[in-house]
Amino acid sequence: MSDLQGVLEQLAPCMDAPALWLGLSGGLDSMVLLHAVTELRRHSPLPPLKAIHVHHGIHPDADRWVEHCQRECAARQVDLVVHRVTLPSGGNVEELARDARYAVFEQQLGAGDWLLLAHHADDQLETLLFRLMRGTGVRGLAGMPRSRALGQGRLLRPLLDWTRAQLADWARAQELAWIEDPANADPRYARTALRHQLLPYLRQHWPALPDNLLRLAGHAGEANQLLDERAAEDLQALGQPPADPWLACWPSLDMQALGGLSPARQKNLLRYWLHQQGLRLPDQRHLHTLLEQLAAADDSQPRVRIHQGLVHRSSGRLWLLPEQGVPAGQNQPWEAGSSVKLTAGNGWLRCSAGGPLALRAGQWRIGYRQGGEEIRLPGRPTQSLKNLFQSAGIPAWLRPAVPLLYCDERLVSVAGRWHAESALADAGETGFGVIWEPIPD
Ligand SMILES: Nc1ncnc2c1ncn2[C@@H]1O[C@H](COP(=O)(O)OP(=O)(O)OP(=O)(O)O)[C@@H](O)[C@H]1O
User: Fold this and answer.
1) ipTM greater than 0.85
2) 300 among the known binding-site residues?
3) Is 27 flagged in the annotation as binding?
4) CA dihedral over 357, 363, 364, 368, signed as positive or negative
5) What global pTM score does this model have?
6) What is the pLDDT of residues 332-365, one digit of tens each?
7) CA-CA distance, 380 to 241, in Å (whole number)?
8) Which domains does the chain show, CATH number per domain?
9) Would the pLDDT of 439 be above 80?
10) Which residues form the Lysidine-tRNA(Ile) synthetase C-terminal domain (predicted)?
């Protein structure tokens, strides 16, 4: 780790970032990273650097850690942002702290910013062993990625090629000060037991294990890349959005085309698709069940709940909907002709001047389907809203969210797409147009 040049090479992807954030716990690894980056900055132009420390409120000494980070940052003229979080009670403290920490990081990163974390080769090894012990797929076998998207920016782990011992040697040589988190020595924490008991034993009996495992992670990383490329091609072929502008707003897949793929390719594609939508991936078993349920040969329109979402089959497609389904809209008053954000995360109504609807005086409001509504479109007999939706192919799951425009309690337009004949602007009357953009919040 005398190799500052090596760290600089790792930083290459983020040289044009508006800002670099450094996740500073105050422990050995992140202190080494802070020191390396601030040393490099003296000779090489780097983006503006800020440090971020998350105070988890777990350990009685946590305030002292904040002071340590403040002191070390001040000595290097680095701005430090400290976030305090409160962890929910119950559950695995390590996991809760990590989730809270990454949520803070995500929220802090501005567009194009990079976050530097000080994970090293031993962390990678521990992660791999953990995953092997708990059971993992090929994706998990690749270990922690060197870089990945995070919020509006990306995270980078520039120290992954150095071992903990190398970082410690360098820290001592540079006379760095760091704090020791007692949790790192507490055998109740699974990671500590792995680090201090299992790994030394494995190293003693299988000295080549660390290198072999890291090599395996490299192979798995390449295999994943191939799987992703295959999935991207499949998605290109069968993930074309439906022509209907409302339906095109929801991620969906064509069921028939999906069924034409081999089971392994179906699962690979589903995994990739869900990951692209930012959802946590179901494991192999759940994925299999999901596909089985969705492919069942009936028209029951099954819905399968996954973590943070709902996969729903209808009208020959698989739709990815919010966890609670598409929200039923809520009534709201409306100034006719003005664009408005709809309540209940129901997207936007965008208005433009000069459209087909007459801008008449009256009490306007936006409402939603209760059942029994009727409308008479130009040149057509009166029909039920249900019938209109059915003939236009608007699936049942979307209907409760479609905004209905009322003037003096008369239904004048269905989301700006279909209008009552009586609501059309006559010659000489001011008209306006409406478009519903059902983009969920
Ligand atoms: N409290 C904290 N505040 C800011 N950054 C932190 C904090 N704790 C950890 N980090 C950053 O995250 C890096 C990894 O920390 P740690 O090894 O505790 O892993 P972790 O995030 O739990 O990792 P894993 O994803 O391997 O479980 C640290 O080197 C540091 O850069």
Assistant:
1) yes
2) no
3) yes
4) negative
5) 0.76
6) 999 999 999 998 888 999 999 999 999 999 999 9
7) 30
8) 4-205 (3.40.50.620), 243-321 (1.20.59.20), 332-437 (no CATH)
9) no
10) 364-436
